[in-house]
Amino acid sequence: MQHLQSGLSEFVFREVARRQKNQWLGATRRSRMSEYSTSPIVMQLEQWQMPLDEKTRQRLVGIQSVSELLEHFLLKGVRLDSHMGFWGLVSGRYPLILRTDIPQPLAMLRRQCGGERYVTYLDREEDLSKPVGRFAGSFEFLMHDLEHAHKFFGDQELFRGQVNFFNLLKSILPRLQVWTSDPLFEKDLNYLMSDMNSHPVHLFKYLKAIVLTAELRKGHEDHAQLDAFWTDILNEWQTPAEIRQAALRINRPGIETGTDQALVHEFFRGANFQ
């Protein structure tokens, strides 16, 4: 695991430098008062053949590790959420599990139910420029995964809500099988299980939306029947009556209110589903 993480770090730095040349070290995130006059990180960067002009070397004085570098500086051209996910990985702040393949959606869902997440680092040279799904190559795919990592772990309240939502989603997967013969629904559900990290109310809205659109593709427009389905689900989740009514109004234009969203959020935040 440590060897794989070191390889990932080198990969990210070298790919950033390949794109940004000498300007790979971005803006300062956090000022520091260093008691060190040396720069141990420079030796590591030299081993990785990173471009290091005198200005960059001066900015790195006192930096001891990759984790400390990411804490104090941004990497040029890397989105903030991806940067924070990278920092969370190398610092050990986020419980991320590295793998060199893409997990199945259900595997990712189960991992998130336990408050962890996979990160995929495709470490073969041929993956660098070969499309990976909708991404140009392995670097872009990794940056996307790290962005998801920060969206999952970066805010403790949203993290707790997402973990509860994913557990509740897993509990009703058998109830959703009635639509899995629809390939578009299956694709949408897989996306929800493995490629969405967001506010739990947004996740719930997405779940209701893909069920509705699956029904519409069948030519069914009976909202009362779907309300009965969701009432059963919400009862299974043991939601209080006020929250159950709020959840039924979610995604109903002209009916849904901000109060409904707040109540549903409070439910997911405090569900404590094990």
Given the C-alpha coordinates, what overall shape results? elongated
Largest sheet: 2 strands, antiparallel
Number of strands: 4
Strand order of the largest sheet: 1-2
Mean pLDDT: 93
**Approximately how much beta-strand content do the residues carry?**
5-15%
Number of helical elements:
14
- What is the radius of gyration computed over CA atoms, rounded to a whole number of angstroms? 22 Å
Label the structural class: mainly alpha
The rounded distance between the terminal residues' Cα atoms is 28 Å
* Helix-strand string: HEHHHEHEHEHHHHHHHH
Residues in helices, as a percent range: 55-70%
Low-confidence runs (pLDDT<50, min 5 residues)? none
Detailed description of the structure:
There is one protein chain. This protein has helices at 2-20, 40-47, 54-59, 66-72, 80-91, 105-113, 138-153, 156-171, 173-176, 183-194, 200-217, 223-236, 241-249, 258-270, and strands at 25-28, 73-75, 96-99, 117-120. With 274 residues, the chain is mainly α. Helix 4 (66-72) packs antiparallel against helix 5 (80-91), helix 5 crosses helix 7 and helix 6 packs parallel to helix 10 (183-194). The chain is elongated. The two termini are 28 Å apart.
